[in-house]
Amino acid sequence: MRDYYEILGVNRTCDDAGLKSAFRKLAMQHHPDRNGGCEDASGRFKEINEAYSVLSDPQKRAAYDRFGHAGVNGPQGGPGGMGGGFDASDIFGDVFGDVFGEMFGGGRRQSNGPQRGQDLRYDLEISLEQAYAGAEVEITVPAAMTCEVCDGSGAKPGTSPTVCGSCGGAGRVRATQGFFSVERACPRCGGSGRLVLDPCSGCHGHGQVRKERVLSVRIPAGVDDGARIRLAGEGDAGQRGGPRGDLYLFLSVSPHELFERDGLDLLCTVPVPMTVAALGGEIEAPCLKGGETCDGTCRVSVKVPEGAQTGKTVRLKGKGMPSLRNRQRGDLVVELFVETPTHLSARQKELLKELAGLCDEKQNPKSANFVGKAKRFWEEVTGN
């Protein structure tokens, strides 16, 4: 499906006047009556109508800019490719509403009253430090706002919208089709029941304008990847006095170069010199420190048991992630990685050779166990 801005030949910063000018020019050029009923021209004309019907509506344009076609063609989306403001769901919904409404307690939908604004989604990436300690972040959200010039009426200050003569202000028109009485949104006023004859210069008759808002959001300590935060009333403005929609923040935690998260536990692999692993001792490992004044890393002492092997883990209680539900904290799990020394001097090699000559199966139990298993395997294979 082609980009709506590309269809109209405008850029994404184009204002309402530019959109209208581009639409009129293309509509005249591709109108079927001016092209002898050509199917290509008819298809192009519908495509132009669909693009303009979305981009000329502040709410639909905001949704399209953020989510693309999925934002306007979903269950509550826009034109759905029909063009010309025609909504098939109006016909089918009202047909069955008329026939079965009284039986099942249903009723007709009212489209000319106050309408709640659309909900918005904002994807926010945070660091593991921010997820650990909590943070106050600022985000910039484009949203439909009530026009301050006309206070949302869409009419020029000093004037008011007039009642639509086609529907008498009901926003719906009815026609009889066979045995059914079909009702749909009034095509003249778009279902609002009102007509703006002298449009406001600030919003060009829409009653809303698109603006970017800067919001301060508190990220609670302990949030995990995929968490969702609802900000009530921070979505698009409602129409005709309706309430604002909500803003939903979807959080993703960026990968950390030192830690991996496993529930409330933090996992960290730390290299250990061979001598410390053999003799035992202490090493330093990084850990996260929370609080309002510190969101960076700090050090924690880890005791390495004598004879520690690669893969040995040391669990430090209460050094992991905080819980969102209570005061519980996870653990910091330090996995030891025994490091073999490199670039040895002649003296160091001499000492290691001397050590190797002094070691036996007691010092290398795993090696001795493996050699025993390997010897039995070879005997079974060779029969010797």
TrEMBL record:
GO CC term, one of those recorded: cytoplasm
Pfam families associated with the record: DnaJ, DnaJ_C, DnaJ_CXXCXGXG
Required co-factors: Zn(2+)
GO MF assignments: ATP binding; heat shock protein binding; unfolded protein binding; zinc ion binding
Cofactor note: Binds 2 Zn(2+) ions per monomer.
Positions annotated as zinc finger (CR-type): 134-212
Keyword Cell membrane: no
Record comment regarding domains: The J domain is necessary and sufficient to stimulate DnaK ATPase activity. Zinc center 1 plays an important role in the autonomous, DnaK-independent chaperone activity of DnaJ. Zinc center 2 is essential for interaction with DnaK and for DnaJ activity.
Family per record: Belongs to the DnaJ family.
Protein name according to UniProt: Chaperone protein DnaJ
Encoding gene (name): dnaJ
